Please model this.
Amino acid sequence: MKQALTEKEIVRKIDSGGILTPKGFKAGGIHAGLRYSKLDIGVILSDSPASCAAVYTTSHFQAAPIKVTKDSITKEGKIQAVIVNSACANACTGQRGLDDAYKMRSLTSQAFNVAEHYIAVASTGVIGEFLPMDKIETGIQSLVPGKMKGNAEDFQTAILTTDTVMKSSCFAAEINGKTVRVGGTAKGSGMIHPNMATMLGFITTDANVPPQHLNTALKEVTDITFNQITVDGDTSTNDMVLVLANGEAGNEPLSPEHPEWSVFVQLLKESCESLAKQIAKDGEGATKLVEVSVIGAASNEEARAVAKQIVGSNLVKTAIYGADANWGRIIGAVGQANAYVNPDLVDVKLGSIEMLKASNPLIYSEEEAKAYLERDKIEISVNLNVGSGSGMAWGCDLSYDYVKINASYRT
Amino acid sequence: MKQALTEKEIVRKIDSGGILTPKGFKAGGIHAGLRYSKLDIGVILSDSPASCAAVYTTSHFQAAPIKVTKDSITKEGKIQAVIVNSACANACTGQRGLDDAYKMRSLTSQAFNVAEHYIAVASTGVIGEFLPMDKIETGIQSLVPGKMKGNAEDFQTAILTTDTVMKSSCFAAEINGKTVRVGGTAKGSGMIHPNMATMLGFITTDANVPPQHLNTALKEVTDITFNQITVDGDTSTNDMVLVLANGEAGNEPLSPEHPEWSVFVQLLKESCESLAKQIAKDGEGATKLVEVSVIGAASNEEARAVAKQIVGSNLVKTAIYGADANWGRIIGAVGQANAYVNPDLVDVKLGSIEMLKASNPLIYSEEEAKAYLERDKIEISVNLNVGSGSGMAWGCDLSYDYVKINASYRT
Model:
């Protein structure tokens, strides 16, 4: 008898897929004049109100659009339209900013004939400036289905700031005898000139999942994907990841008790992890994707903390930029992490090159290590050898261009 | 009747003073061949065993010399000689490294005729390499009083790595009718090519303070001085601040119950704060000293956390390097800090320029702000308006040179 497939084996990647691959979604993006020439307002529209779950920035300063989106989702846990603008974050804008975000919601409600509490609002761009509401209004009206070209690329482009590439992912699996698809897009390029620091993620799925369970799955998955990337350690006022599940796949409602729940979670995880890595690789000034894998920790949480400490260390990042196999900096970061570490037991590998075994330096070829570090994906593995916890984190190197991008003026 | 002077008014700066200004100390430094041509081994010697207190790195990987110094201090709380080498950190060097650090202590004991447990050992330099013990031995022997020139500058130079300047400070006050002096030196330039990340501080005083009380004062002071500087957020395996109090000022023993205890603490604080600022200003690639002052926090601890978050933000650091008055990045950092923040009440000032009042953006002159940011000392003030806690932190900007210094090879 054949052994049962793992969740990872059941889930398959759809190479050219994205947010419109799941059934029953439309999307578009237009140029409303918030930016010089690029698309700057985008919309995702579900054929019917979809189950919705979202996670938000932990910043004390949550931007106005986040407050409005929370207000919408709280009502029924359903969202049908997501309206997003770039160029202006509408953060630290006081009561006027909050009024503007609600106005953006009501304009979308009227234009798309969708109840206000079925609308999510997101913004990304400069902190402390007000939305140009006349442009927002004209823009939203020109997005109405029929008027807009309506493709995933326009939406994906409209949400970008200093990103150099669009991000998208799509995965599918059979669940309850039905094909279920999860598509996603995201923006975020690090901390970003000028204050456009936001990470936004939008995931669509045709799975049938009630809001409360969708929420459970999203929280579980973001902890090991989006929350494990770092470009420079700064958290934006506008970060948001939002999942819409419209049920058009026709599967019976999923919950943690369903035998195929773990397949759905894996599907969501693959989508989010793919987007998270695309963001890390497109970090400001980045020349390399860095993937850190930690095993042997006291818990998964501690493994993730150690991985994120390594990938976030300026010293590790500059060493990787310079292709310098400086494992002392990896140890420096591990030494600082909020985790149980036995200083006599740590192993460190760069790709397959062993550098430290039970905290003792090994002899390795500097040439081989340097050659490895000149690749465009760098893998660092650490075994703490104190437990069975594991975790990963993703980031990028720190280059001259990072300083250049972030030292320049806002104008 | 005249009002009593504050501690700050009682303490006076001695401009050309340093570790040899307090009575009863000698110091020296020599070139032992650990570095190409610079001085690389230094010693501080007290005429008699001095009360000693020390604070160490919180890294899980404490280097061998730290273990040896702890072992010495634990015996009687007294130290007479401090031996320091640069170029090699003797960290992550296993049992052989620990044996070498003990050997360095015993060589110093023999050369200076001082009991082993009166000797502190410190190292700074590359992680994961062994000390060249033959050079260490010859070096220590040539440091013996009479053979060495014996001045503070030689010691201050011998402990440097990528630092571009020596650091020293000296303050004095009348305590218990006697003149008490506190002198200090430190090294540390950020995270430093290659792994020479260490911050070392050595403070001498002729005050009479028993070890346990000296320890209390040092912990209180380091929390608001050395622990509030950051160059790039990385913590070394070798950090150490050590105070020697030999009692030669002739004052009666000080303790927290003594009416002039607060004057002694202020004396120590001024010395440590001066050194901390010198380190921040000499951070790798730094062009500016950044001083962040936070008031109105729920507690002093929270004020310090917010100040350190701001001064440690890569985005704030690059904006300051680029003279960009990007207050949104300051808000971004405040938003992330581990402190109670009411997002509607925050004030932000750059120098005397008000940028944000009760979390609402103010109109200010971009030209004036840019001109301010082109100075070599930048002051950022934040009022959280939720309590009476206050705190400060110091750091530097993030420049191309930081990347250059840290991306280059270890050779």
Remarks:
- The longest strand of chain B covers residues 41-56.
- The radius of gyration of chain B is 22 Å.
- Chain B touches chain A through 62 residues (CB under 8 Å).
